Amino acid sequence: LPEVILNIVVCVKQTPDTAATLAVKDGHVTWGDSPMVTNPWDEYAVEEALRLREKHGGKVTVISMGPEKVREALKTSLALGCDEAILLSDPALKGSDTLATSYALSRAIGKMSNIDMVLLGRQAIDGDTGLTPAQLARHLRWTSLTYVAKIVELDPQARTIKVERMLNEGKQVCAARLPAVVSVVKGINEPRYPSFMGIRKAGKIPIPVWSAAELGLDTLRIGLAGSAVAWPELRPVPPRAVSVQMITGETPEEIAVKLVDKLMAEQVI
Amino acid sequence: MTNNVWVYIDQFKGTAAPTSWEAFGAAKALASQLGTGVTAVVFGQGIERLAQEALSYGADAVKLCDDATLAEFRVEPYAALLVKLVTEERPEVILSPTTPRARDLFATAAVDLDTGVIVDATALEPQDGLVRVTRPSYAGKLLSTVVCKERRPQMITLRARAFAAREPDASRNGEIFKVEPVMAEDAIGVKVVDYVVEANQVSLDSAKIIVSGGRGVGGPEGFEPVRQLAEALGGAVGASRAAVDAGWIPYAHQVGQTGKVVAPDLYIAAGISGAIQHLVGMRTAKVIVAINKDADASIFRNVHYGLVGDLFKLLPAVTAEVKKRRGS
């Protein structure tokens, strides 16, 4: 039997840190000196890809779309153990919505051959849309498995996969065929930290840049012009004026009575 | 007559996600602006009752597909069917709740329809046929106005509890159109082999009351008084990231930037210090109560009522008081 190699692509996005204080300037988000990080949900996707490779053998390629500075997120993924990285970058891609982004990513994945699975986080903490995984699957016409909390079985030879999906009412267990686009939720694993050796190794791995022209992207389907939705206005949420009222008393029971009185007066219980 | 505003009803085992009914309030307002009616769209198996329910909540007509291939939600057959119906009738707007199922359905169908999806709407403002949608991003740190300018339909999912549901009126009626599925079982690649429903799980998204525990509960057993108060109030149990990362409670309960963003009437935070990542997940709650033994905890700067003390004494006392008032 020929050796089966599992080929996995992980899509990562670079986002502002979760603790960043955001502001809006000229319609764009700014976060001052706060560092950029890999989207927290994508960290679980990278980890899951590495674990699958450790179990089945194969290759993990990480890809990110964005400006040159996104290279940092790719380096972090390489330091964790990904084999290769690709930067999908072109001024023509700027302003892409999820429809355009997933189209561009699908073409990049189409350019690589024999990919079995694409892993992504369930959503990115900046746009918070959670649309890209399903849209990427549709562009590729591959199996779509979103909100995956556990990969129960993976058989690269038989090209089958079984997963648990986390939905609001509980867990849906699905069996399907590869190739698949899988989006993961927190709880699927515990991401590792990069090792010193990993960081050194990552520094030596070249990161090719793929342009829109190289992928033969239809310029009417990317960037601002190729996007279906636009966000003409962006504003910070005004701080809510909350003045705390401390509820005190001699005993827990006395405090409880006062609190319940307040909550009933507020008509929330 | 074709109705230009549609509402997709997201259902699980014959029960609609509550936001489906909230969507009819928003849909009626849009429809009157556009001079059109509202069509409800519902797919599943054994769901005829939902068609009647949709009429009572404000639908003027219903498109219903009741078929074994649609018994469990799977994005392939659902999206193929929605795409076919939309292609035939070209509605201007389709609304749905923001749930994992509806999000996947809209995302997938939008690729085939080459149109835009706007997720998590908290306000809709029609302007000459164009719906200006307000939605939070960056876990609610920012608000944006988003539009799907030229392409149609405008596919918009609504955040839970952001729109008021209309009072159902059982006397309302309308035509129910039965439609056929477009994919046969053999052609559907994903098979659902099991569904593990969590007992007594109250969805955080649509919960009116949430009681959450953080690092201060000290361990998995520390969630017991949290759970008891939630139960007495008929609410759901939430948690901070610290408690989830410690393995004390499953991730499904996490409130905050990498968990659920919620907007209940009442949010009670017990033993939660108040990191920004947690606050953004609950700060739009109508009333927020914090219980913490540290009077200087930053959470007290962001809540309406503060209780300083031992949560293991205060929570049971509040639970007992709630039960007493409710006569149970």
Structure commentary:
Chain A is built from six helices and 15 strands. Chain A has 269 residues and is of the alpha/beta class. The longest helix of chain A is centred in the first third of the chain and has 17 residues, at 40-56. Chain B contains eight helices and 18 strands. Chain B is of the alpha/beta class and 328 residues long. The radius of gyration of chain B is 21 Å and the shape is elongated. At the A-B interface, α3, α4, β9, β10 and β11 of A face α3, α4, β7, β10 and β13 of B. β14 (230-236) of chain A pairs antiparallel with β10 (142-147) of chain B, so a sheet runs across the interface.
The outline of chain A comes out as globular
- Count of helical regions of chain A: 6
Number of helices of chain B: 8
Overall radius of gyration of chain B: 21 Å
Distance between the termini of chain B: 53 Å
SSE order and pairing:
The complex is a heterodimer of chains A (269) and B (328).
Chain A: E1 6-11, E2 14-16, E3 23-25, E4 28-30, E5 36-38, H1 40-56, E6 58-65, H2 71-80, E7 84-88, H3 98-111, E8 117-121, H4 132-140, E9 143-155, E10 160-167, E11 170-177, E12 180-184, H5 196-204, E13 209-210, E14 230-236, E15 245-246, H6 252-265
Parallel strand pairs in A: 1-6, 1-8, 6-7, 7-13, 8-12, 9-12
Antiparallel strand pairs in A: 2-5, 3-4, 9-10, 10-11
Chain B: E1 5-8, E2 11-12, E3 15-16, H1 18-34, E4 38-44, H2 48-57, E5 61-66, H3 75-89, E6 93-97, H4 100-113, E7 117-121, E8 123-127, E9 130-137, E10 142-147, E11 154-158, E12 175-178, E13 191-197, E14 209-213, H5 223-233, E15 236-239, H6 241-245, E16 266-270, H7 276-279, E17 287-292, E18 305-308, H8 311-325
Parallel strand pairs in B: 1-4, 1-6, 4-5, 5-12, 6-11, 7-11, 14-15, 14-16, 16-17, 17-18
Antiparallel strand pairs in B: 2-3, 8-9, 9-10
Helix pairs in contact in B: 3-4, 5-8
